[in-house]
Every structure is written in structure tokens, then in C-alpha cells.
Amino acid sequence: MVLTLDYTCFVRGGPQGEVGVDPEHLEQAADQHAEKLSSLKGKRDSGQLGFFDLPDDRSTMAACLEYAESVSGRFENIVVMGIGGSALGTQALHAALSRPLHDSRLPNDRPRLFVVDNVDPSLVGGVLRVANPETTLFNVISKSGSTAETMSQFLLFLEALKAAVGDSWRDHIVVTTDAQQGFLRPFADVHALKSFVVPDNVGGRFSVLSPVGLLPGALMGWNLPQLLEGAAHGRNRSLSGDFAQNPAAVWAACHHLLDTRCGVHSQVLFPYSHRLRLMVDWNVQLVAESLGKVDAQGRRIGPFPHGAVGATDQHSQVQLFAQGPRDKAFTFLRVLNHKDDLLIPDHPQGLDELAYLSGKTFGQLLDAECRATQLALTDAGCPNALISVPEVDAHSVGEFLMWSMVATAYGGELYGVDAFDQPGVEAGKVATYGLMGRPGFEQERSRVEGRKISDPNYRVI
Ligand code: PA5
Fold first, then answer.
1. Less packed terminus of the chain by CB within 10 Å, N or C?
2. Are 56 and 82 part of one and the same domain?
């Protein structure tokens, strides 16, 4: 069972009308496809784009499963410390592949999973209060092995763990980091901690199918073979030389043309699925950090990735989508078969107006809302596409993850930027080091403290 992409309403003159990709431009994109594909393949062949090959790395998957098996039944909680690409994929997979509301159930057949992706003390302290270190496994994830947010959490949880379990703290920590760089790798080596490697040629936001996502997945019992199989399938389709049969290339080209030629600068991923809701956050980071860049000509470029969740956001954002500016491209994710579907019961006397709901299922209602909203936005002249997902399972999720990553890589080729760096986040990081008094960043501290960005004339006190 595979995903399908219908982009009829992305194309100008389609059912949504005049806001859309000019068919001629799409033909030009098809003509350029061989060149873009060969550039990507070249980068892959030269070993720069390791994410393409993660679905084939069955030995890493086996190592994650083996470790999970070795600690099976020992822990009530898994606490993942990580941020950005070291957290969002795991959160999205947990929402998609664990049982709904998994963490609120007790007792549980699998541990609860807490992904601590912020340094807000209310989150970090909150996790510390609910996850007793004695029954918790801490997975610290940082590709660079030095990210301040993750390191500060690590210091806190490490101290709590040592206080709670003494010398056996080592059995409660598993490290996922680069093979060489950063502070975590030598720490793991010195203390003989269990550790996994984030491959050097896999960037943070492209790392969900490495031990970054696979290890929590193994511990949580997600179907990893299916996940990787789906990803491999998605990858193979996304490398097709036939543009019209290549979902990632078509999706990327349409988004690029909508942004650069049609004034449609926002991309809204709109899953009609509670399970897929966190794919939105994962995708936002993927697109934003990869494509929001200064290009070789010094132009600031990049689409604005955004998200909505059906049916929830029908009662929040759809008003804007339907009647606000037509500067957004929507991609609906429609789930064809909702597992665990529920029947809406017969209406009691006095609620006859609800008869139309009785006997239908919640899945039917959600699906009707998805179709209806797509139609409503089409009628409102908004460009949109539809990805049909047979069912939310590991295979389809793996395929979608890979489509998105490959589409983003194509986006880099189309915009002419490096989709795999993130120079724009450096300035804030360095300024934080200065403010926090990290040795070597003294000048930055004086610069930040001396810089005036507030004028008393423009303050409301
Ligand atoms: O995609 C990226 O590279 C970033 O979002 C990183 O994942 C994020 O900054 C965390 O970095 P690290 O894993 O090195 O702690």
C-alpha cells in the first residue's frame, strides 16, 4: 500500500482557478528534472547525503532492537533529551505509531516516552517530577554533542539519576551522538555508556531514520522493519527519472513555482489525522531550516512552512485560509482507513437533528470533513494538493518521511541553496554562549550587552 499525490489543484486553470502553477513552467521543471536529479545523485554518491541510505542500514536497526530487547521490562519511562532534528522526528513517530494517549495510560505494556525538547524549567522540572529516575532510561541525543539546551538537561537528569540510583547510573543512560565531535562521545567512552552513532553525513533534521528515531522506536515497539521498508519505497519512487512519476520532485517543483512565480509563499501541511499531527512540526523544521537561506546572489529566499490539523483547525484557521490572502499552498493528508474506528451511536429522543450522524463512524466524519474542506478551499481559489495515506502505519509513515526529505533536497536544488546547512541559527547560539558566560565568548557577551534594541519612545509601560 503506497501513498499517492494528486496535484490537480496546484496547476493554474484547474478546479481552484487562476492561482496555480503555469503548466508551461511545470513542463520546464520536468525538462530540468534530469539535471536536478543527477546533482542530487552525485551528492549522494560522493557520500554527502547519508539520509538516502538509512533505510538500507538494517544492522543499525538490529542493534537498536537488540539493545531494546536487553532492557525490555526494566523501565517505566524513556526520557529523550534532544532538540530540533534530535527531537521532532521522534515526537512525530510517537504520535503516529504509539497507541493514542499512550503516555496517559497506566499500566502500560511499553514505557512512557517523554521528549524534552526545551529548556523551559516548567517542562524540564515537570518531567523530573513524573519520571522517577529509578525506573527511567535517559536517551541523550545530540549529533554535535554540544548543544546547550540538551547538555543542560543532561546535567540535570544525570545529577538526579546519580542521587537516585548511585553507581548504577550508567545502566540508565544511552547516548546517541556523532562518532567523533562534541562532549558526549568522550563522556560515553570514559564511562563505558551504551551509545549509538549519528552518521557524520546525516544532518539533524534528516536523521529521524538513524538511531535518533530508531532507538526510541525500538524501545517503544514501533514496527521498524516496516518503517524502513516504507522509507526505502518512498526513496526509490522519489529518485525516479520520470518526473511525472516522481512524487517528491513534483511536490517540490510545484511548491517552488508557487512560491517564486505565483506569490504563494506559504506551504500548509494539513493532515486529517490526530496521529499525523506532529508530522507538521517535523516538516516545518525540515523545510524552514533547509530552504530559508540567502542564495548565491545575496537574495533572502525560502517558503514559509506552516501547518494545520483537521478537523481541529477548521475551527481555528480555515476562516483565514478560505477568505484571507491566496498566498498559501495546502497539502492535505487524507487517511483512507482509520484504524480503531468508532461507531457514532443512535441518537436519543429529543436529538433528532443528529440523526444524520448516527450509524456513521468517526473515521467517516473525519474523512467527510477532509474532502469537504479541500473542496471548500478549492472553491475559494486556493491551490492545494492531496496526499492519500492508505492507513497510518509504519510503512506509510516511513514513506511520507522520505518523500518530505527528498522533496526538501530537491527544493535545495531548485532554489539554488545548500539545504543541509543552517548558518542562520549560529548567531543566536553564539550570543547565548556569550550571555551564559561560556569561555571564549567574552567579546560576544560585551557585544550583546552593549547592543541597544529598545527605545524608551517606543515602550508601553
Ligand atoms: O537540523 C539540525 O541540524 C538542527 O535542528 C539540529 O538537529 C539541532 O540544532 C540540534 O542539534 P544537535 O543534534 O547537534 O544537538
1. C
2. yes
